[in-house]
Specification:
about 270 residues, Rossmann fold, two-stranded antiparallel ribbon, 10 helices, 9 strands, globular
Length: about 270
């Protein structure tokens, strides 16, 4: 598992930032730059994405595997306490860790994610993950990223370029493809109603076990995390503080100054 590191590697004040299902560690560059004078910021590429290796058996592209991998990473970081920022899938991993007895998480930021997720939105994401797309031109690939990530909300051209650059690469034939294992789609395709219900119950159990201060950020137009689920998360478990971001769906990118300020105030306040 590859990871990016910002700030003084000897700093005991550690912040771990984990990305969404098809994104990469580079998503947190702006946030990491802003906080690296206070934190040692560590941003991993979850297995199957970016610079990290792919699993030999894609059936293991599941939350328990990701949580196990992060336990190994945290042991390597040798931090007694740390803070966690997780976007979408990265937030689910955070819930899994923060619900464990004796975990080191001091403060938890969940970015547009919760234990109950919209089935329609999961189908949308699963369809996107499984699409096998290849582009002749870099410009075509960027337009595709803009189109499928439109729910991220308004961004300047240079920000869209970075969002695309972070998840695109060229294959052996010079075609532009997305920088993850296409077999990530397997768990989406093989999921059943019963399995989804069991996973939701397990996530709520983990969430209810969380004891650290928790911030829940939600895109006001998110189709994955409903307003009702977000409200329920303020009433149970760690009773998260909720901030909704206007004009954004799934999920806030934490590239804008106002979004970074919300995270910064919670973590350092």
């Amino acid at each position: 598992m590859a990871y990016k590191e910002w700030g003084d590697p000897r700093n005991p004040n550690v912040l771990v930032c984990v990305h969404g299902v098809t994104r990469v560690s580079d998503d947190f560059d702006d946030l990491a730059r802003e906080l690296s004078d206070v934190y040692r910021v560590v941003c991993p590429d979850v297995v199957g994405r970016g610079r990290s290796d792919w699993l030999r058996n894609p059936a293991y592209y599941l939350l328990p595997q990701y949580v196990s991998d992060m336990v190994t990473l945290l042991a390597r970081l040798d931090a007694d306490k740390l803070d966690w920022v997780g976007t979408s899938m990265g937030g689910l991993i955070g819930i899994g860790l923060a619900g464990l007895e004796g975990n080191p998480i001091r403060r938890l930021v969940l970015n547009d994610i919760g234990p109950t997720l919209s089935h329609a939105a999961l189908e949308r994401i699963g369809a996107y993950v499984s699409q096998q797309v290849r582009f002749d031109a870099r410009e075509e690939a960027e337009k595709y990223i803009r189109d499928v990530m439109v729910t991220f909300g308004p961004h300047a051209d240079h920000q869209w370029k970075k969002l695309a650059d972070d998840v695109l690469r060229q294959d052996a034939d010079g075609k532009w493809i997305r920088h993850y294992d296409p077999h990530l789609a397997l768990p989406f395709k093989s999921s059943t109603v019963e399995a989804a219900a069991h996973a939701e119950a397990m996530l709520w159990a983990a969430y209810d076990a969380i004891r650290c201060p928790t911030l829940l950020m939600r895109g006001a137009q998110s189709d994955l995390l409903t307003h009702e689920t977000a409200q329920e998360m303020t009433r149970r478990g760690p009773k998260a503080s909720l901030v909704e971001i206007a004009g954004v769906g799934h999920a806030p990118t934490l590239m804008h100054g106002d979004q970074i300020a919300i995270v910064q105030k919670f973590l350092l306040g």
